[in-house]
Amino acid sequence: MKRIQHLATAALALSLMASAASAHPLDGLTAEEYQRINKILKDGKIANDDTLFPLIELKEPAKADVLKWKQGDALDRKAMVQFTSPDGFKEAIVNITQGKVESNEAIKGQPMVLFTEFMDALQGVLGNPEMVAGLAKRGLKPEQAFCLPLTGGNFFTEEYKNSRLMKVPCYRVPEGSNFYAKPIEGLFAIYDIGKKSVVRVIDTGAVDVPKDNWGYTEEEVAARTPLRPKMNKVTMTQEGGPNYKLDGSHLEWDIWRLNFRVDKRPGLVISNLDVNDGGTWRSVIYQAHLSEVFVPYMDPTEGWYWRTYMDSGEYGFGLFLSPLTAGIDCPANATFLPATIADDKGNPLEIPNAICVFERSIGDPAWRHFEVFAQTPEKPIPAEGRPATELVVRTASEVGNYDYLIDYRLQQNGQVNIYVGATGLDAVKGVASTSMKDPTAKADTAHGTLIAPNLVAANHDHYFNFRIDFDVDQPVNHFSTMDIVPAKMDPASPRKSMWTVEHKMPNTELEARYKLSSMQPRYFMISDPAREGYLAHEPAYMIHHGDVSYGPFDFANDPPMKRNAYIEYSVWNTVYDPDQRYAGGKYAMQSDGSDTLAEWVKADKPLMGKDIVTWFSAGFHHIPRMEDWPVMSTEWKTVHIMPHNFFAHNPAMTLRK
Fold this sequence. Notes:
One of its GO terms (molecular function) is copper ion binding. By secondary structure, the chain is mainly beta.
């Protein structure tokens, strides 16, 4: 029997070595690799059947090795593994290829929430006598309550030391589709998910639970109000099948090629994004992914002030990927792909239809020109132009009440657009007011909007930080800005004001952080100093613009803002460091702000002659409105990346009619 087990293990190891030689080094971990990781740790007596794994991520090979890699080369496959132990959380580096553990150290921080911990909190709160009593005061039994464990941030008090806290408000169990329509306001528990116990229950006074179910399925909506007349469906069709080619994680389309994977924390990761310039493949971006999502609420009351979520680092955008639906989330002709991550036990968990890939005609011209001077009465000449098509790689993560779509959209003119679509449901609190005419309305809406009778949606923000490691032609790039500034005018000139472009190159990390303002127009350039471009320009890509927002926050003294101080500026630049992947720090859960992008740049490293990573925070302020309820329209925010003197001409010129 032992010999059979040994042969099976050897066969698995040989299979993994073969796949390592054929797979791309930045491919996501496979189901077989997750199983292998588990076995290596258990064989080494480091893990056992009771061990839980908050996070298992690919430990990427050195960037230089990846850039030298050719198909058929073998690089060791490794994983960073965070896991529970009798001594607390630990982190190991597991060499999957060689079957050994290279390091095993205690974690200096709190890893992301386990799903097991989430469920323990949900059930543990409803079994607490104080919570049961609080529900009884509101005429409810535990079985009538649905409780939602939420990360409680870190407010640097004794309560947060040597603990792992979640705060758990509850809702009336829904009679329809909407789980958030009936908040049980004024009552929540603080639960230590590490110790599996209720720390305390807070009851600030009962508020009547709203009566309306506010369902959003078609049947529920039809019961409330007439549906619109039926319309002829507008669908996308494609004769002859897709123009893109998929080979595992490798995707090629038009002038683009890239690799992609899903990680448990950031979700979709794009790597090795190259563009074809007249038959030559040129590098644009080595890697891009979501770095952190920060959603702070602006309600200072006891039940709301702590709602300052770090959705990616605390919960995981990859963990909460939801299956995409053909004809709704993506066109019916899209290619749907699964994602594989690890569950709490370290076993492979496949999420079906987690990624969709599709190309679409956007119904706009890529370019056009109508030449009026070429027209004659005898021979009218139509406009010359080409239709625009784009490729979309999409995922959708449901983190609590919100759904976030993440798109990477590639254009035929060499541009890249990162889109974030926010939809789902507003977070609501129960109030006495049913109308703004009520005497309680002013107090009830001091920090939000009455969006339905007895429901206020609190004001809040959404910030999405992306880590974009540009490698324009090569890793060592220049970073600079093009600023629109007043031109010096000759007093004799009839023109008294013009603008000109001023090129500025920051020397260090602290100099290379910026806010965006229409009052101070500026473009952010990443260029290759070693390559003489067409017409002797320095070839570049630039962040042209993006959706940004700023708040009057105190980044020195307000704990949530100190933990997420990277939102103070929209654009940051750092010297490449493989350990600096997430702007909010490696361990977001109850972090103290000491390991963040805003702290890393205090080293103020020189940028000249270095491999530079650019960080961009897109965001928006959300002042809720009645039109957000019971479900929100998708609000799209962008990061717009475009070539600047990279190509010899408009790449879309060569499109066919």
